[in-house]
Amino acid sequence: MHGYAVEIIDFFRESFSSRASFVARLEKLARAPVLVGITTYTETAAAVAKIAAAVREVWPSACLVVGGPHATFCAEEILAGVPEVRVVVRNEGEGALVELLEHCRDADAVPLRDIAGIAFRAEDGTIVHTPERPLVRHLDCLPFPPFALLPPPRTVTGERVLVLLTSRGCPGRCVFCASRAMAGGAYRMHSAEYLAALVWNEFTHANFDGMGIMDDTFLVDFRRLERFCKYLDELAIRVPWTCKSRADTLHSRMLKMLRSAGCKSIHIGVESGDDAVLAGIGKRITISRVLDGIIAMCAHGIRPECSFIIGHHCDTLATIEKTLLLARAIQENDIGVSVVGICTPLPGTALQRRAAELGVRFVTTDWTHYDLNTPVFETNGFSVDDPRRAQYYLEAGAARGEPLALSGIDHSGFRAQLDDFIARVKKFRGTGESHAT
Q: Which member of 325, 397, 419, 427 lies 3.0 to 4.6 Å from 393 by CB, making a disulfide possible if both were Cys?
């Protein structure tokens, strides 16, 4: 929109076997860039220094800018530790990036100190944080994402998928999530009309076989959803698609509409099998409501995709066992998909800010271990090895018939609740013996 040509290199879609192969990719560009931006998550933070060094080798005069969640909350660490990086963009980057490009064109006309929402290293070496930049209130003012600059994502069977994000911010207060700190507590949405135009544009120009809507809570606004589904029907876009939401947003009318519009699966964050833990992490939902939501999805032919976290700050060995029992019941009885990760206090989360208050004792602060699959803290309720034992049981021990033996507590009451849940699901799935093991 502002007259700059853009090139995107996506490490998730391009493979580089070595530094030399990455440098060769950079050298293929027709012109040296004015600015190079690197998006950073905590899981990829260790790669920033390597990428920045390679970029500086090829383009010594390019302005290196880092943004994304990790950079937002660890700006000083990046600027102090990676000398090649000149600027960090905090939170949303659209406005700041345009002004940074104008700064590169005329530094006197647009000095860094006048650009809101950034941090930079001054000439004397001090790190300067400019005032916060207001978040984009009306998302429809943004242009369509430049999907043509990237190869389309494909499923394992080769179908092209349109992956899109339709909102920002989150009204939730889960202690393990940085979404609210990154994008604000107000839930901001593209309109159904914007989404319909975006989907239609991609469908007619590039075609696709399915859609993946990546919002954490896509189903929060029923009226918008209703209009969007209506537009899909009117435009004759009849492809399977998936989305994410909370279990407490699901109801029969919505699910019937979603199924009719092509939605084949919904991801929900269950997080724990214990009500006290759900309350302690700020989830504001109960196991009973979760199970009802899963049953409702099954009743309407929509596959549940459930994610769980073990090793919450308020977990015990017994509550971890309940989470494993629920995850296994869903997976092994073909009710849906279960994915289990390990609680990780990422930068920007209340869990990291309030770690001492919540009884969290870190065993490492090395970001390379913050991969959502490696225990990085312990509490009075469990040791750092206990989540590993739970992982082993889930991934190998259960298949070998080994008993669930973390706490030694009898979970017969919870098992009975799960057996009732499975029986209710089976009403919509035909016959077959199944139980909560």
A: 397
